[in-house]
Amino acid sequence: MADVSGLSLSWFACALLALLAASLWLVxxxxxxxxxxxxxxxxxxxxxxxxxxxxTTTFGAVYQLLPVVVGEPLxxxxxxxxxxxxxxxxxxxxxxxxxxxxxxxxxxxxxxLLLGFALFALNSLRTFARARRKDVVAYAFCAATLWLLLxxxxxxxxxxNRQHGFLPQPxxxxxxxxxxxxxxxFFVTLLQGAGFRLLPMFTLGEVRNWDRVVLALALxxxxxxxxxxxxLEDLAAxxxxxxxxxxxxxxxxxxxxxxLLASRRKRALDQGLQAFIVGGVALGLAAPLGFLxxxxxxxxxxxxxxxxxxxxxxxxxGALLPMVCGMLLKVFPxxxxxxAYAPRLGRGPVPLASQLPSPxxxxxxxxxHLLALxxxxxxxxxxxxxxxxxxxxxxxxxxxxxxxxxxxxxLHLRTPRPVPGPGxxxxxxxx
Length: 431
Prior knowledge:
mainly alpha, Cytochrome C Oxidase, Chain A, 13 helices, globular
């Protein structure tokens, strides 16, 4: 099977630059999170984080993992190199257009992104079609790809509808649909599938009940489809029922992940796995909050604009970012090791892939990231002005720690550093 590690590392490098840009932007303009979840600058920053970092990282990971999952090389190995510049240009154009509230430019930039998504879908679906091994994890990759296309289409319609008002539903409906199709349909579906392939690999555990994994995925997929129809047809009762199905699917995934972790033979959990688990817990907390937002009008008018921000912070910052970063902390050192040290095997001592990162930097990143989330949440819920700037600064610090760790790992590509072996066993003196 062809080595695509260089391709994935290129995607990861672009993603980390976007993460740094999003963190710096928030430090320079912490008030953008106080302007409401639909303010143009806020939407631009969210897309910098979600499309620029999370999606870019995920594309790089899928191009590496999908051939492993289905046992076939990528159907079109050159297309990802065309997808990368299209994605980068589309992201830059979209973020700038949102920040300047130019929705015609938003639609044009979204068209570039959609073209890149179409190339990604073509490659993924044709690779899937060629495979002889198609399990629930492979089907999760396939379903996530389709949700991605629908999310992009909903986003384009929302941008055009804001300008021309040609759709029967108001623009906020399309924005909610776009957000949930992207976050839940693409990212969470992938995590529901790929997590049950990666966690056994990294913990030496085993999936106890594959039927429960299948049922969990089916519930979230059916729930998201029904929720989408409920939004478009304005069916309040239907939205509640299908949101409950999504929550049930996530609960089943959590129960199976817990059983998998309990079966692990590698008892110690490193920082990457800790981050993944923290993100899973945050996703579990976000699910009932999202259900409440759909099912009730309990939140009063003063909090109405803040609760969606807290919900978004919990989903994106609390759940998806730690889970994606946690997996990146596992995958990135392995890919670097494969390029720097795999060709040297048998010709001298080489370090283990687990020796490339710094556990101190990883632990510091995780702790400061959680502190940043607490400060930002206080900024949403309180009137004091210093909480948001403080949260933005701590978030920047956490991302700098994370980037420092990845730079430390990447330096092995430039100057591989073999480690000394244990040396010969001591020779006992003879009498």
